[in-house]
């Protein structure tokens, strides 16, 4: 990111976090970077005022990795949490996050868990961004039920 190689950084995240699956892992890196650049250019051209594009989100990705590293092995710290908690996941979500939800469900005394059928990590994305799997109405309904 510091070298303004946004596509290269996104491909690193895509591969490192296993977001693309076996098919994308088989595509050469140079081709993935080219495809990612074209996708971001197309998205930016179509973006309306106020839309958040992947190019805009990309610089925040290092925080995700940082949090994953910092939180590894800390699930027992949540045992004393005395509040209702909603654990949401998608049935098509990242497989390595499901054990984290399982562990949290066991240690959080007041946890409710919901797995949303057919959704992946982009389930809460704006519905206009269909390429990100957005079905925010489904997520919003679960949140409404939880908070009422």
Unreliable runs: none
Proportion of β residues?
5-15%
How many extended strands? 2
Describe the global form.
globular
Question: What features would you describe in this structure?
Answer:
It is a single chain. The chain is mainly α and 148 residues long. Strands 1-2 form a two-stranded parallel sheet. The chain has 7 helices and 2 strands. It has helices spanning 6-16, 21-26, 29-46, 54-57, 61-71, 98-107, 136-147, and strands at residues 85-90, 111-116.
Record keyword descriptors for this entry.
single chain; 148 residues; mainly alpha; 2 domains; two-stranded parallel ribbon
Layout of helices and strands, plus pairs?
Blueprint: H1 6-16, H2 21-26, H3 29-46, H4 54-57, H5 61-71, E1 85-90, H6 98-107, E2 111-116, H7 136-147
Parallel strand pairs: 1-2
Helix pairs in contact: 1-3
Summary of the model, kept short:
With 148 residues, the chain is mainly alpha-helical. 49% of the residues lie in helices and 8% in strands. The protein has helices spanning 6-16, 21-26, 29-46, 54-57, 61-71, 98-107, 136-147; strands spanning 85-90, 111-116.
């Amino acid at each position: 990111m510091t070298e303004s190689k946004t596509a290269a950084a996104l491909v690193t995240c895509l591969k490192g976090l296993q977001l693309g699956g076996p098919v994308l892992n088989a595509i050469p890196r140079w081709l993935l970077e080219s495809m990612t650049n074209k996708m971001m250019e197309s998205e930016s051209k179509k973006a309306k005022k106020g839309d958040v594009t992947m190019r805009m989100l990309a610089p925040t990705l290092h925080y995700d990795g940082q949090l994953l590293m910092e939180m590894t092995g800390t699930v027992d710290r949540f045992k004393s949490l005395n509040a209702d908690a909603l654990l949401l996941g998608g049935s098509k979500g990242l497989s390595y996050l499901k054990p984290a939800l399982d562990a949290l469900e066991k240690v959080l005394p007041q946890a409710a868990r919901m797995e949303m059928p057919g959704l992946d990590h982009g389930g809460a994305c704006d519905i206009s961004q269909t390429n990100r799997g957005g079905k925010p109405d489904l997520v919003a309904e679960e949140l409404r039920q939880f908070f009422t």
